[in-house]
C-alpha cells in the first residue's frame, strides 16, 4: 500500500514539474479554445517609439468584460516581454501585463527599439486564467 502511494506521489510530482504543465483557475474553458495575435506577425518589424496596432483573435470562446461571468467567455491580457504568470492566480496588472477588461479585441502599443515578445492570455471575470489555460504562442517583433 505504501509503495503505491509513493509511486502516485512521484508521478504527481513529475507531472507538476513537467515543462508546459500549468495549474489553472477554476473557470472552465472549452478544450479547443484558441487565442492568437492576428497582427503583428511573428518576426515582423514594427515602428520604434511610435504606436502600432495589436489585434487579438479568439476561437471557440467569446469576449466578455471583467466582472461578467458567462460560460465560455473571458477577456484578453497582453503580455509584453515577460513569461506566463502563475495560472492559478490573478494576472498581474503592470507595464508587462496589459488588461483589456472592457472586452477590447485590439489595442495600440508603443515599444522602444529592439526585440520584444508579445503573448495573449485569456482571463475569466476576475482576471484568473481558465482551466485549461487559454494562451497564444509567444511571438517576437523587432521595433526599429
TrEMBL record:
Keywords: Signal. Residues 1-24 form the signal peptide. Residues 54-141 form the DUF4399 domain. It holds the Pfam family DUF4399. This is DUF4399 domain-containing protein.
Amino acid at each position: 500500500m505504501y509503495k503505491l502511494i509513493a509511486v502516485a506521489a512521484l508521478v504527481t510530482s513529475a507531472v507538476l514539474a513537467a515543462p508546459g504543465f500549468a495549474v489553472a483557475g477554476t473557470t472552465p474553458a472549452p478544450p479547443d479554445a484558441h487565442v492568437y495575435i492576428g497582427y503583428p506577425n511573428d518576426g515582423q518589424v514594427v515602428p520604434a517609439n511610435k504606436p502600432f496596432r495589436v489585434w487579438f483573435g479568439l476561437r471557440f470562446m467569446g469576449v466578455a468584460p471583467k466582472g461578467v461571468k458567462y460560460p465560455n467567455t473571458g477577456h484578453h491580457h497582453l503580455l509584453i516581454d515577460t513569461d506566463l504568470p502563475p495560472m492559478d492566480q490573478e494576472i498581474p496588472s503592470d507595464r508587462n501585463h496589459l488588461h483589456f477588461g472592457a472586452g477590447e479585441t485590439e489595442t495600440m502599443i508603443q515599444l522602444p527599439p529592439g526585440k520584444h515578445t508579445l503573448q495573449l492570455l485569456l482571463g475569466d471575470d476576475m482576471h484568473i486564467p481558465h482551466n485549461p489555460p487559454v494562451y497564444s504562442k509567444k511571438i517576437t517583433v523587432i521595433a526599429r
